């Protein structure tokens, strides 16, 4: 039975991954840094997330605007969940990879969640990443409906500011890539 569950879980994960466009792997969420600097908060709007009733799917969608630019980047992903709850989503590019913007949703053991937004500003001269984390309390993602129609829905504000910091990645600065 455990083997069957593992096989089913791997099939569902593969299906979820295939629902996203094939994109190059985004930068890691935690990388050694030399310099960290606060930057203006990321402005998120139109945020929505919900598990879809009787479908074993969940979705996350929002728009994000950065203080230094007036362009809005749209982020959206469809995931897989067997429990009609909002499941953690691995780091995923928004819109298209040329924007350098990606996000990750992490469900915490206490029922809260974290939305992490990453903006890659790297160039030939330096690897620079801006990273913001917005904590979502447990009461902002309640279970709705009854019986087989019960599912988790985000009911918090649709617009919010995400505190952010800029990271200058040390592996490039220190020349580990073979560059000085």
Could you describe the 3D structure shown?
The chain is mainly beta. The protein has one domain. 12% of the residues lie in helices and 45% in strands. It is built from two helices and ten strands. The strands form two sheets. An eight-stranded antiparallel β-sheet has the order 3-2-1-10-7-6-5-4. Strand 4 and strand 5 form a beta hairpin. Keywords: Signal. Residues 1-22 form the signal peptide.
SS-derived structural category:
mainly beta
Describe the biggest sheet?
Answer: 8 strands, antiparallel
Count of DSSP H/I helices:
2
Beta strands, count: 10
How many structural units, i.e. domains? 1
**Average pLDDT:** 79
Largest sheet: spatial strand order: 3-2-1-10-7-6-5-4
Rg over CA atoms: 18 Å
Distance between the terminal alpha carbons, to the nearest Å?
A: 54 Å
Form type: elongated
SSE arrangement, N to C: HEEEEEEEEEEH
Question: How much of the sequence is in beta strands?
Answer: over 45%
In which range does the helix fraction lie? Answer: 10-25%
User: Can you tell me the residue ranges where pLDDT is under 50 for at least 5 consecutive residues?
Assistant: 1-29, 172-180
Fold topology:
Blueprint: H1 2-19, E1 33-52, E2 57-65, E3 72-80, E4 89-93, E5 101-107, E6 113-120, E7 128-136, E8 143-144, E9 151-152, E10 160-169, H2 170-173
Signal peptide: 1-22
Keywords: Signal
